[in-house]
Amino acid sequence: LTAMGDPSMDPTISAADSTAQQDSLFSMMDVFLISLITGLFTYWFFFRKKKEEVPDLPKMQSVVAPVRDSSFIEKMKKTGRNIVVFYGSQTGTAEEFANRLSKDAHRYGLRGMAADPEEYDLSDLSRLSEIDKSLAVFCMATYGEGDPTDNAQDFYDWLQEADADLSGLRFAVFGLGNKTYEHFNAMGKYVDKRLEELGAQRIFELGLGDDDGNLEEDFITWREQFWPAVCEHFGVEATGEESSIRQYELVVHTDVNMNKVYTGEMGRLKSYENQKPPFDAKNPFLAQVTENRKLNEGGERHLMHLELDISNSKIRYESGDHVAVYPANDSSLVNQIGEILGTDLDTIMSLNNLDEESNKKHPFPCPTSYRTALTYYLDITNPPRTNVLYELAQYATDSGEQERLRKMASSAADGKALYLSWVVEARRNILAILQDMPSLRPPIDHLCELLPRLQARYYSIASSSKVHPNSIHICAVTVEYETKTGRLNKGVATNWLKNKVPAQNGSSSLVPVYVRKSQFRLPFKPSTPVIMIGPGTGIAPFMGFIQERAWLKQQGKEVGETVLYYGCRHEREDYLYREELARFQKEGVLTQLNVAFSRDQAEKVYVQHLLKKNKEHVWKLVNEGMAHIYVCGDARNMARDVQNTFYEIVSEFGNMSQPQAVDYVKKLMTKGRYSLDVWS
């Protein structure tokens, strides 16, 4: 080692060594360079290939992208519109109101268009001032516990994050809500407040419609004051009497390929014959009914438990979610409408939008038959709204009947009172009106244009996917009642489901469904106690909750106290899932089962009375155990009474004043520890 480092070495040896080292160095350099070049070429080759592939992606997306890329501003300019009416709609009512407002505009020399916020970029609102005499109206329904409707979710998210300058925007808002719910008209109130915060100018006060009262009257009252405010703001006047303007034109198909005709599908033609996931509102899954049994042992009502097979659908659900069911109208009602109007219901037709620029080409899937439209697409059982009566009035040949219809559609006090008593309170549907007004015989195509869409019905899922991954359970009660006119009215979906008999094959047992996600969720930690309050069919989601807690316990998880407060009328008549609940209690999953039989004694006993009876235990679970509270069922009375009971318990044991107790419960709601799944 020392010799190698010695400077007095033999020079010839040194030169030979040096040459050898240089040869070795060059050969190593060559290898290195070749490797480097090969590596770079390989990297470039693959990198170049990726770069070539990238531009293809936007092309693919643009093919399937919704109409979102078209600006509503450009559309308004192109079609000469100056009023846009956006709707946030879950059941179709807000959309209906938006269409009525956009149609009104022509009476004032203005032109309106109804628009789905899901189809447009709402940041364009800042540009609306580019259009003369422009106005944005928002018909916003509130869904669930103060949430936006599905189609308004993106708009809501944008409003929350936006820092846009909307100072040139003029707007008005009509909210659709229900006073029995905790967050009455939350969406309408939020949109109204937020638009003002962003600098927009409100030209008419916020309207608050209440579906628990008379939503139609609330809308008419707001509307009749809204238009004069618009006229005053823009300096325009009404051009004359309200006139009936058809939105769609009828095309009858005499020679049509039946494979191109809709037979009840919600979106894609033949989607029921060729099912493809994912399944949603526009592409429901046809689930087979595998079980349909009556739950109650007596009484006049029919309470039922259904099981729907979702095998091979890729549908996933969680306990607490809702299943949406698309029902069909009773064929006898459909036939009677056809007979009264003297129509061949099997005529194949299309209703085509006269506005070629509209995104909505048809009011329902076309071409189809009148029978299919009246069976699967149109609501023929609910009392029609006043705009339908107004449009139909022109077809009444008897002057008295025509005057009556126009009066009910007017904004006069006696007209509103007549509509309320003769239509709403008497629960007269379109068939009953046609029967009671013999001179009223409208063309069936105009009637189909006017009637609202038949909506999906939502049911709280009564099973856990941990236990039943391929099955969705429903618990429901058939709706049937006699009206003031002596007619027997039946609930569309529940009576249709009642007749779904489990079978090996055949469409008689198929139900179009999809799952809608919910915020009604079990606590993340299984050890957290739960207090469930659900009388009647309100027990549905709790059957799923209890099944899941039992499954968690079987997996060796520590499961907290599981307490149920259930109520029914009579122990021997309508005690739902009695055997299942007894088994869960015996197994120790259901740690406490409290049942109120409201009519088995002189004084009525409800779930809130049992909560008061066990108030110390309830407070201990909530205060010390950090329990989660769940309430499911009737919003109008039960949910409110239960909430008031919690105020009392919190006030008494938490040493709080009434306002403090209310605030405490509201904070539980904010934290997700007090959840509601209620209906009115």
UniProtKB/TrEMBL annotation:
Necessary cofactors: FAD; FMN
Gene Ontology biological process terms from the UniProt entry: response to hormone
PROSITE patterns reported for this sequence: FAD_FR (PS51384), FLAVODOXIN_LIKE (PS50902)
Uppermost EC category: oxidoreductase
GO annotations of cellular component type: cytosol
Segments forming domain FAD-binding FR-type: 282-523
Ranges that cross the membrane: 25-46
This enzyme's EC code(s): 1.6.2.4
Single annotated GO MF: NADPH-hemoprotein reductase activity
Keywords: Endoplasmic reticulum, FAD, Flavoprotein, FMN, Membrane, NADP, Oxidoreductase, Transmembrane, Transmembrane helix
Keyword flag Transmembrane: yes
Occurrences of domain Flavodoxin-like (ranges): 83-227
Pfam families tied to this protein: FAD_binding_1 (PF00667), Flavodoxin_1 (PF00258), NAD_binding_1 (PF00175)
Protein name: NADPH--hemoprotein reductase
Organism listed in the record: Sylvia atricapilla (blackcap)
Upper classification of the organism: Eukaryota, Metazoa, Chordata, Craniata, Vertebrata
